[in-house]
Amino acid sequence: MAGVSDCFSIGSTVACKTCYNKDIEGEVLAFDPQTKMLVLKCPASNGRTSLNDVHIVNLSLVSDVQVKREVSPTTSEPPQSLNLQMLNRRVRNQIEEKKRLVMALQAGVSPDGQKLFIAISKTIQDVTWNGANIVVFDNVIIRPPYKVDNVHGNEDSSAYKHVKKVVEKHIKDTAASAQVQQREQPQKGSMMQ
């Protein structure tokens, strides 16, 4: 392995030949000297400039490594530290979301109810299940079959009006999506010819 250094600077450009004789060249995103793992960001294999391929390379299994462009570690700014509090909050939120979906499955909620619940939870955090009923803001209840007429609560409250609009939009979007899918499906008669 010619040209292997003890450490690769983040932002440097490195080229290597894998044990499968594949040439990989890209920008160093990370390097772990203990495991000899190198993470490279390369241009997307599909040609789209807005995307990148990321390769994790085990340097113990490459035949050649060359540093094409070295970035000085003193001139580049250090990587930003992770916001662990934010990451932990995101993990907790995802766990809570999964628990709510499991509760819906255990209550035997229809797929329409589950889809409506997911649509509501994308914009409103305070949404839970009470059996097969969706409860929003602790005072708006949506009962099966989860249509606009099944939204119950204080009709004068802003929470009720907001939830009703969300349900109306969800039903409208679902109907529009179903129409598009029907138009895109080929005619059965034309398939048989």
From TrEMBL:
Residue ranges constituting the Sm domain according to the UniProt record: 1-71
Family matches, as InterPro entries: AD, Lsm12-like, LSM12_ABD, LSM12_LSM, Sm
AD domain mapped to chain residues: 80-175
Top-level taxonomic group: Eukaryota
CDD domains reported in the protein's UniProt record: LSm12_N
Protein family according to the UniProt entry: Belongs to the LSM12 family.
UniProt-recorded name of the protein: Protein LSM12 homolog
Organism: Polistes dominula
Gene: LOC107071234
